Amino acid sequence: DQQVKQNSPSLSVQEGRISILNCDYTNSMFDYFLWYKKYPAEGPTFLISISSIKDKNEDGRFTVFLNKSAKHLSLHIVPSQPGDSAVYFCAARSRTSGSRLTFGEGTQLTVNP
Amino acid sequence: NAGVTQTPKFQVLKTGQSMTLQCAQDMNHEYMSWYRQDPGMGLRLIHYSVGAGITDQGEVPNGYNVSRSTTEDFPLRLLSAAPSQTSVYFCATSTGSYQPQHFGDGTRLSIL
């Protein structure tokens, strides 16, 4: 039972354009969502998060949107840069899970020069 | 990833062997977790700890054992390695439930 799903295993965009990574969830108890970026042979690094009381959070080129009614969140990267090429994981925690996170499968983003 | 150190980086075991994956942190974080990453499955939680002396099971705990005798260290033990445990293992720490987790660089484990 995959409670957090990233349906696109890969995404390719041109440098300077927008990258949109999507994530769907099924557990209505999720109240905090995070995006992590992972380069090969390294651990995931935290990118941006959003609480369920908000519908948008912005940090520089990165914006996360949350649509609670659709149980959907997305990460927008504008403008995309070749250094953004990495695997992006969506993660969520619920009110009852403490510090435990549930991760999606990940999306490989490739930004072409 | 400064602050979370995982050793070894690579290990090859034979079926039935035991080993301990080490995780050490110098950030005084209370929360520590172990995840495994498998192709197409994201990261899955194995065990976690909310402080020294307290551990609990995650999503996929079978075949693994943990202990937390100090704030700094959270070792993961494989008692009798199986090929299904071939994976990349990540240790993570955080200061609290609503704080981002900081990951180590992982241990790539192959079991033959």
Brief descriptors of the model:
heterodimer; A: 113 residues; mainly beta; six-stranded mixed β-sheet; B: 112 residues
Radius of gyration of chain B: 13 Å
| Helix segment tally of chain B | 0
* Helix-and-strand structural type of chain A: mainly beta
Low-pLDDT residue intervals, each spanning 5 or more residues of chain B: none
How much helical structure, as a percent, in the residues of chain B? under 10%
Gyration radius from CA atoms of chain A, angstroms: 13 Å
Choose one word for the global shape of chain B. Answer: globular
Query: What general outline of chain A do the C-alpha atoms trace?
Result: globular
Percent range for β-strand residues of chain A:
over 45%
SSE sequence of chain A, one letter per element: EEEEEEEEEEE
Characterize the biggest β-sheet of chain A.
Answer: 6 strands, mixed
Mean pLDDT over the residues of chain B: 93
Distance between the termini of chain A: 38 Å
Helix and strand sequence of chain B: EEEEEEEEEEE
Describe the structure.
The complex is a heterodimer of chains A (113) and B (112). Chain A is mainly beta and 113 residues long. In chain A, a hairpin with a 7-residue loop joins strand 9 (86-94) and strand 10 (102-103). In chain A, the strands form two sheets. In chain A, strands 2, 4, 5, 9, 10 and 11 form a six-stranded mixed β-sheet that branches. Chain A contains no helices and eleven strands. Chain A has strands spanning 4-5, 10-14, 19-25, 30-38, 45-51, 56-59, 62-67, 72-77, 86-94, 102-103, 107-112. Chain B is mainly β and 112 residues long. In chain B, 0% of the residues lie in helices and 50% in strands. Chain B is built from no helices and eleven strands. In chain B, strands 2, 4, 5, 6, 9, 10 and 11 form a seven-stranded mixed β-sheet that branches. In chain B, strand 4 and strand 5 (43-51) form a beta hairpin. Chain B is globular and about 35 Å long.
